[in-house]
Amino acid sequence: MSNTTSSFTWEFEVTGIYQTDAAETNQQMIFMRHDYLDENRGYGRYYVSWLVAKLSRGANADGVSHAIDKVFENSTAETRTTTEQVFVKEQAQQFVDLSWILKLVVLAVFFTLLLIASNSMSQSIRERMNELAVMKSLGFSSGKLIASVYMEALLIIFVGAASGVLIAAFGLDVVQQKLATFLPGIHIQASHYVQIVVMIFSLALICCVSPALSIYRLTISKALRT
């Protein structure tokens, strides 16, 4: 925003800095005297984007909203008064389409990774059939062999997932710094990490279905003859 001298450089006297541990709180906001801002800005003087009205306990929010809008009705600055809950919902709805697009992209990537991981595990087991047959002949049960294959798949997927989470956390930190004014409080919640862990175990389990069936049906004599 430019000032009356058409410059984007503003001079302020900092009287305090606020900090909080709440991740949903935007800590990159500046609070200032409105009259100082209004008399020095180059455009939009005497206008504001939105105002906050605090109601007393038991007040009728709808009635107050209609009363405020009635005052400014048919003026050059008509208002549309809503509750804070409705305001936040309207702001969030601006990103609904983007949210669905991101979900579809993540779903497509997850499905692709599932196919790649499943194919890799199946190929690995087919190449090690003789080795697995020898282990069976030494007394290893099918359950133990399947468990070892599952742990192998779990390790591979965990390494990939951990790398992705680290990259996402770093990228999210950069996005939060750039878009803190428009999207404050962007962060990875604890529930997200729980979902990631569940997805890791689930993906490893799905990838081991085909190898597990191959191991279960494996006969020692047939595998050693090939």
From TrEMBL:
The keyword Lipoprotein does not apply. GO terms for cellular component: plasma membrane. Residues 106-219 form the ABC3 transporter permease C-terminal domain. The chain crosses the membrane at residues 100-119, 145-172, 192-216. It is found in: Cell membrane. InterPro entries: ABC-4/HrtB_transporter, ABC3_permease_C. The keyword Membrane applies. Keywords: Cell membrane, Membrane, Transmembrane, Transmembrane helix. Its main location: membrane. It comes from the Bacteria. Pfam families: FtsX. It is a multi-pass membrane protein. This is ABC3 transporter permease C-terminal domain-containing protein. It comes from Pseudoalteromonas rubra.
